[in-house]
Design brief:
The protein is an alpha/beta fold. It folds into 2 domains: 251 residues, Glycogen Phosphorylase B (Rossmann fold); 175 residues, Glycogen Phosphorylase B (Rossmann fold, 3-Layer(aba) Sandwich). Helices cover 43% and strands 14% of the residues. Bound molecules: uridine-5'-diphosphate (UDP).
């Protein structure tokens, strides 16, 4: 590193799937000699004691924990967050500028205030994207699909391929539950208002080559695919907002190899009681051991698992374990896990690919339907799940036992092998990281 002293100001959004990659990135950049300041909202704040070498600056956001984001309130939540954090962030950068360090702002795309403040103060900014790169062409084309009258999608078109987005079908497009106006507002928040100096993308070159090329062509700035960040550099401790129930690891230790279905629908999704009950019956009837994460409050109208009928709870305990939050990466790396029933959030997808675990896909919103299509159709390491007890039972059997499951396991192992190469010395993600460090030093 040059004589000059460098301070990177990283701004993560208060969502689990965005905060964890940002902390991994910060840990990596610190290991390369950069000083790190993490500017974060008060809601879902990271624990500074885990990162004694970083400076943590809370930005007053006037949000309470009852304001937690959901798909329904995403636009309003992000606007409030950005409006409230902006003035404090500007004061922070002005203070740091007085210290005569070279400053680069690295921010989550949802924390767009950070990019606009950086520009205002004449500082370079880089965006970290924590969703799949394949989301970009979709978001880019949606306004055009509206103009051409192809959205909202008619029922008869749902199974058809969107020609410009092959292999995605109309049913894989995000925001199906939103109005046109809400869709355009959401895209406006997700897409950068102004081209940054570069993009860092938590993905891998071999997984999404075409989307990465399109992003580069569109913005004409460097794009660094450096994922999966959790495999590049471990953080000193868990990055979870919720406490991890580690007792599930000793439970997994007692299960047969590749026998367990791990079920987790991420940190945001809220699920109807009816769907959750079908999930429970499907699991109970499948005859496979299962580990099911049910986040408190994630089943609409219930604090935790009160929606389960008494008899079903007893039946489920014979073969299964339900926890409130799991050490997911450790669970997926456990030899007893044979399948991951997931909502296909991008972090969960990357974590499954990294451990070679085939997936049962139950996507809800945002990029999840896109990721699910890639998992099942392009990478061929998973099946789409239709949430009905009989269908679930069948899907679990398809993935965990039987010939089709063997083929998916084989595909998943191949992908895991490629991920290992990408994150190893001279692999594509490591090369991208080297280029990123050089790029920052050139700013
Ligand atoms: N996660 C976890 N324990 C759980 C459930 C989820 O640690 O019990 C983590 C998971 O490993 C992933 C993140 O929460 O890193 C969820 O991010 P993702 O992008 O998959 O979905 P989102 O929560 O954003 O919908």
């Amino acid at each position: 590193m040059a004589e000059q002293s460098w301070r990177l100001v990283l701004t993560a959004s208060p969502l689990q799937g965005h905060m964890s990659p940002m902390l991994h990135l910060a840990t990596f950049l610190h290991s390369k000699g950069f000083s790190i300041t993490i500017a974060h909202s008060e809601l879902n704040r990271p624990d500074p004691s885990n990162y004694p070498a970083f400076t943590f600056i809370p930005l007053p956001d006037n949000l309470s924990s009852s304001n937690t984001p959901s798909f329904a309130n995403a636009v309003q939540f992000m606007q409030t967050l950005n409006d409230n954090c902006r003035p404090h962030f500007q004061e922070l950068l002005v203070q740091i500028q007085k210290q005569k360090e070279s400053i680069v702002v690295i921010h989550d795309n949802l924390m767009y205030f950070a990019g606009s403040v950086a520009t205002h103060l004449g500082l370079p900014s880089i965006i970290l994207r924590t969703s799949s790169a394949s989301t970009f062409p979709v978001l880019k084309i949606i306004p055009q699909l509206h103009q051409q009258g192809r959205l909202p999608v008619q029922d008869c078109m749902l199974q058809e391929i969107v020609t410009e987005l092959d292999p995605l079908r109309y049913k894989d497009l995000p925001f199906s539950g939103l109005t046109v106006q809400q869709t355009l507002e959401t895209i406006n928040i997700i897409m950068p208002k102004k081209t940054p100096s570069a993009f860092i993308w938590n993905t891998l070159e071999f997984l999404e080559p075409s989307a990465l090329t399109q992003i580069h062509h569109h913005y004409q700035v460097p794009v660094f695919p450096i994922g999966p960040l959790h495999k590049i550099i471990p953080t000193p401790s868990s990055t979870s907002f919720l406490e991890e129930d580690t007792s599930c690891i000793s439970w997994l230790d007692k299960q047969a190899p590749k026998s367990v279905v791990y079920v987790s629908l991420g940190s945001i999704a809220n699920i109807d009681e009816k769907i959750s009950t079908e999930m429970a019956w499907g699991l109970a009837n499948s005859n496979q051991p299962f580990l099911w994460v049910i986040r408190p409050g994630s089943v609409k109208g219930f604090e935790w698992i009160e929606f389960l009928p008494e008899g079903l709870v007893t039946e489920m305990k014979v073969r299964g374990l339900i926890v409130k939050w799991a050490p997911q990466k450790e669970v997926l790396a456990h030899s007893a896990v044979g399948g991951f029933w997931s909502h296909c959030g991008w972090n969960s997808t990357l974590e499954s690919l990294s451990e070679g675990v085939p997936m049962l896909c139950q996507p809800f919103e945002l990029d999840q339907k896109i990721n699910s299509r890639y998992v099942c159709f392009v990478w061929k390491m998973g099946v789409e799940i239709f949430v009905e007890r009989g269908e679930i039972e069948g899907a679990i059997r398809r993935v965990l036992v039987g010939k089709e499951g063997e083929e998916m396991k084989q595909k998943a192992k191949e992908i895991q092998g490629k991920v290992k190469v990408a994150v190893s010395h001279r692999g594509s993600s490591q090369n991208s990281l080297k280029k990123l460090v050089d790029f920052i030093l050139s700013l």
